[in-house]
Amino acid sequence: MKKVMAAFAIIASINLFAVTVGQKPKEVVLSGENGGMAKDGSQWSSASIKDKVYVMFYVDPDEKDLNEHFSDALKAKNYRQKGAYGSIAVINLAATWKPNVIIESLLKSKQKEFPDTLYVKDKNSVLVKEWELADDNNDILIFDKDGVLLFYKAGKMQESDMQKAFTIIEEHI
Questions:
Q1: CA 92 distance to own-chain centroid
Q2: Low-confidence ranges of the chain (pLDDT < 50)
Q3: Residue 66 CB neighbour total at 10 angstroms
Q4: CATH number where 45 lies
Q5: I need a surface site. Which of 53, 88, 101, 169 has the fewest CB within 10 A?
Q6: Number of structural domains, the chain?
Q7: Predicted pLDDT at 84
Q8: Range of the domain at 31
């Protein structure tokens, strides 16, 4: 019985920090050597995911186009005009062979082009480690106004995933 309880405790602790739909993920801060805001390098905290429905893209730069169809469809929905909606693009710099200096320059120009989206650098795959997000991928997360995770998809969004995401956003916006 002690072995069963010990095994259960180990398994339970493994998923302690993983993102779980229906729960608010543990707070993560990206700053200094771990990253931060693309525009100026200032600190970014997941605690800022509140007061709006947020769609977060967690992206390996080598997989940046994988969910472009979903991003385009989100833009076409004009959710910003319909209510409290925001978007965050967190770039997993540790997941690519490309030099950080080049990606960081591109992120600054993206931030200027799309000022309503928060661009964030994750230099050491912190969200992979802390939230157990898929590494070397393109992940989509949707949070409600309280920071509770409503949707998580690692990899390419299929039509059914997109419809589910749109429904969730529209129900919570």
A1: 10
A2: 3-16
A3: 19
A4: 3.40.30.10
A5: 101
A6: 1
A7: 92
A8: 2-172
